Amino acid sequence: MLVERNGQIADLVAFTSGQSAGTVFGSSRTAVISGPVASGKTALLHRVLEDRALAEHGLLTAVGSPAERSIPFGVMEQLLHDPRQPATGSPPPLLTGAAGLGGLRTAGEPVATEVLQYFEAELGRMSARGPVLIAVDDVQYADAQSLQVLSYALRRFPSSGPEAVSVIVTIGAEVRRRPPGALEELLHPIQGLHVRVGPLSVAGVERLLVARARGGEPGEGPAGTAATARLAGALHAATGGNPLLVHGLVEDHFSHERPSAQPGDGAADGSPGAGERFLRSALLIVHRVGADGLRVAQGIALLGGVSPLSLLARLVEVEERAVLQVVSALADAGVLDGGRFRHAGVRTAVVESLDDEAVTRLRPRAARLLYKDGAPPLLVAEQLLGHAMTPPDEEWAPQVLADAAREAMAAQRVDFAVSCLRMAEGCCRSERERAQVRIALARFIWRVTPSAWPRQVRSLTGTVRAGQLPAADALRLVGDLLWNGWTDDAVTAVRHVAGTASPPDAELAAEVLWLRSVLASTFPGVLERVGTTLAPLHGSAAEVPVSRPNESRLAAAAALHGALVGGAGRDGGGGTSPAREDVRLSDTADRILAALRLTEETEPTVQACLLALVYADRLGTATQWADRLLAEVTARWPASSTAILRTVRAHMALRHGHLTQARRLVEEALEDLPPHCWGVGIGAPLSVLIEACTAMGDHEAAAEVVGRPVPEEMFATRYGLQYLYARGRHELETGRPHAALRDFTTCGRLMRRWGMDRSTLAPWRVGVAEASLALGSHDQVEHFAREQLTGDAGPRVRGIALHVLAAARPLGERAPLLSEAVSLLQSSGDRYELSRALTDLGQAHKQLGDPVQSKLHTRRAWRIAEGCGAHKLRQSLQSEQPGQAAPKAPEQPQPAATAGLTDAERRVASLAAQGYTNREIGAKLFITVSTVEQHLTRVYRKINISHRRDLPVSLDIDVAHIA
Description:
By secondary structure, this protein is mainly alpha-helical. 61% of the residues lie in helices and 4% in strands. Strand 3 (132-137), helix 6 (144-154) and strand 4 (165-171) form a beta-alpha-beta unit. Helix 12 packs across helix 13 (309-316) and helix 28 runs antiparallel to helix 29.
């Protein structure tokens, strides 16, 4: 099927048939069809020859061939033996005749007169019967003798009239060859037509698609769908409009579709797939470019592009001028675009055309040339890793591969980074160099195959003891050893570095300061063992300026430690107050997060900042950052890192009382990173899972989690504190207050010993108070609850403490304490603890003989419990009034104070009285948060109240009838 060629066909037919302007005798009518490789020159020639306007012409045809260009008179033989012409006798064999007429062998020798006259006579006999048309395809491959004969004969015949002789040829460019003089003489007559065949347009490709789908010839007007237009654009981008490539892709496209498929039903992303026909066509073009075409194309495929041209020429060992010609020809043919393969499948096919021996020779050569030219490490490494090669014996290779691994990791090409380091390990020339590579490899394996990471880390312990690691690398390894619970090895490494390190430089100083902060905030049990040993080195490191990236990392670690120290280590007198210090620390963490881009190097900094915000009681800010980071990393980040970030976010959800979300996040984290890969850090996800399941009333699931084995070393870490507190909650809710009291007091004892007695980490005093309440020890309840209230507790923990304290007070004192607890918990956003406090407040009002307030608070508690996933608490509240979806207060007459409210104000106030937030009210009533706030302001003024909790019962109407 020819597309976008009608005008060229008409011009060629008119010209060669003599229908265009007349000519003079002796000036041959020669038409030339040129164009890039596989642009459709031959198809156009055949279409012209089939035209009815040339039916009366005598036709002589020949095809040039690279393999036959050295055979004298090869084209003449084809012309004179054209089966479409009647034989006129027995012409002498030209080759034999030529040999006999002087042994003609070279292109520069003149053709014998007898041969020239013989061909002229043959043309004369044919032209006597009517016009003659000579057609030669790929005339650039014609032998020089035949070209001389053609030029001689054509000068002796008219180009129009009944005895006209016309010539039509196709010609393609040749690399590293100048056209012979006879060809130039033939193609540059006094009068001629030159038609250059170009690529198809996008519209032409679309018409071809439509025609192929209909099984007919393409029309001139596009008639495709939007999907066809999109596919046509994709096909054109992959082929440059080259007809042979377009046809190949079109056939591949339809061959993979159902019989009923329509054009445009391609891949979901609209990209064309590379099938057998397309790839075969592309390789054909590469071969037809010339003798150097395949070699140059292979070099481009290996390097990924043409630039720099001089390097490509050196790689394939071809003259730079010839390389440029090949590149130009491949670009004209639609194979290359901007010096690169248009379609990745073609590049792969060209690389696969190399045999193993050639790849083994070319890849190292390419890597060496790239390295010497100062190419980026990634490009060099791609050559070294391109064919499962053995490690190169090059002094520069380990460093280049290590640099490439860092660049690959920054681009999230984790598997490639690991491959770089594995090869670097194999070509290191010293054990010290090999040990450094293995440390980097361990860090990357953690991100690719976490289950294999402990084994890689373990293999490095011997290198530390042997002193084969630089001090900074040895300290980096300490954190990995501690995570896996190998405390003794970590302590040995710290003592080795502290005992052998000279005054620290900037790199070592940063690692010493970072490790000291990590030990203090996460591994305090280990700090007790090495603190004295590390102190001198730490003191020296504190005086050394560090790099700017390390400044952020160390500031984040200091913020986390400061947030954990809390009031236990701060000056509450003349110095900065604990509250102001929390603000300073949270501002530091927020500022660092705003300036960072999440990468493999900044990941520990990000985690430290998020935890600092949580422990500084800035849960809202922490949640915003965590959600933003999770949205960024889930699509491109290693599962191990995503799992840790999900766990941090789950802790935030738990503190907000979003039990279902907390449980889901942790379960996803444990799927991303299986429990055996967490080391001592397993306490973080398990503590959330235990607390969430316990609060939801799923005690069987919580018991299963508690029953899982955990490393003993975990209990000397911050993760162990969280685990002890969570396990205590489970034991308390399942009727084992003595066990709960033991876990809570152990948690508290360790927190005080390690100087991180912060209620935002684990409010152990509240736990002790609740366990004491279950054991009937009201004095202990009073003591620990009030101690918690006078400590560093924020609104959430103060609300929980007041709730527990109220349970130990006489009935008449409970309602005020619980009301204050409700107010604090509502402001803190902990919906689960709010529903618990509302439940007890409802019971207190019931016992005090106020059923209206009792049922109002109970219904609010039920709704909140339902929303946050506290299923057992919701069921207990629902069971108080069987048959109802929730307890409902009786109708009450409207007090005069509320009679002046508009319907809109009443709806907003009613929902606010039931515990809905302003945002939830806006969503339910389809109004903005600002409108909700304005309504509530007017309601407060009209009924003369100051707080949300003072909204009267008479405002409460059935939520089901609102919006």
